[in-house]
């Protein structure tokens, strides 16, 4: 992520969020729009037409209708998938598949035991499902929540790490962007808040992007020296 400088407030907030937070995933997009909007949609059925129709709650017939196209395009626009033409292509289905895998994790994201349970409190990051959570031993303390990790070429590195720097109002001089609630754990890679969709492809410059409320909760629950474990492989990398 390059060299960064901190600005503004410093220190750790005392408030701690308790319990697990349910993962909220959009499973349907309403089909709407007028004639002009429908006319600009891609009229062709994509290779994942049936899967996408099912995901969005549309009639599953494998044929592209104006209403199908409008619904797919609304989903694409919501998550920054480009081009947003309503075409049920590989990237759109990849995003939806990730959402389905996240939903399937439920409240037992470490069911397979991939994240260590012998280190006390630890933040787990599963790149494959684009999920993160905090556990203490085998007890879930927060999450699981969706995250947005590094894209192809700037992948979030795997392995066991520790938080070494915290900066609540961080500013990246490399990317010229704000990184609220930044907690660095691997040579410039950090948990931090972003306003982008967690399902916005292709991904970050290596950091673990989080929704603002989740990044704030991680700030309150974690501290310098605490463990982070990253594993798996992000789809498309």
From TrEMBL:
Q: Which PROSITE patterns match?
A: LD_TPASE
Keywords linked to the UniProt accession: Cell shape, Cell wall biogenesis/degradation, Peptidoglycan synthesis, Signal, Transferase
UniProt cross-references to SUPFAM superfamilies, sorted A to Z: L,D-transpeptidase catalytic domain-like, PGBD-like
- Active-site residues, as the UniProt record annotates them: 192, 207
User: Where do the L,D-TPase catalytic domain residues begin and end?
Assistant: 120-231
Q: Where is the signal peptide?
A: 1-38
What Pfam families is this protein classified in? Answer: YkuD
Domain of life, per lineage: Bacteria
- Tell me the route in metabolism or biology where this protein functions: Cell wall biogenesis; peptidoglycan biosynthesis
Keyword Cell division applies? no
Q: What is this protein called?
A: L,D-transpeptidase family protein
């Amino acid at each position: 992520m390059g060299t960064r400088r901190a600005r503004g407030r410093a220190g750790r907030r005392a408030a701690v969020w308790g319990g697990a937070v349910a993962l909220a995933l959009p499973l349907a997009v309403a089909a709407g729009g007028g004639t002009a909007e429908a006319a600009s949609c891609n009229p062709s059925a994509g290779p994942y037409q049936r899967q996408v129709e099912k995901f969005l709650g549309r009639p599953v017939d494998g044929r592209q209708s104006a209403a199908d196209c409008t619904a797919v395009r609304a989903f694409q626009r919501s998550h920054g998938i480009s081009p947003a033409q309503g075409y049920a292509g590989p990237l759109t289905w990849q995003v939806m598949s990730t959402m389905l895998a996240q939903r399937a994790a439920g409240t037992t994201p470490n069911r397979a035991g991939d994240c260590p349970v012998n280190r006390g409190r630890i933040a787990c990051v599963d790149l494959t499902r684009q999920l993160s959570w905090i556990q203490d031993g085998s007890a879930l303390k927060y999450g699981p929540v969706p995250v947005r990790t590094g894209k192809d070429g700037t992948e979030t590195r795997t392995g066991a790490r520790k938080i070494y720097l915290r900066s609540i109002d961080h500013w990246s001089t490399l990317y010229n962007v704000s990184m609220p609630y930044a907690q660095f754990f691997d040579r410039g890679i950090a948990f931090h808040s972003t306003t982008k969709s967690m399902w916005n492809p292709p991904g970050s410059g290596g950091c673990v992007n989080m929704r603002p409320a989740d990044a704030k909760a991680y700030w309150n629950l974690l501290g310098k020296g605490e463990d982070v474990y990253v594993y798996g492989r992000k789809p498309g990398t």
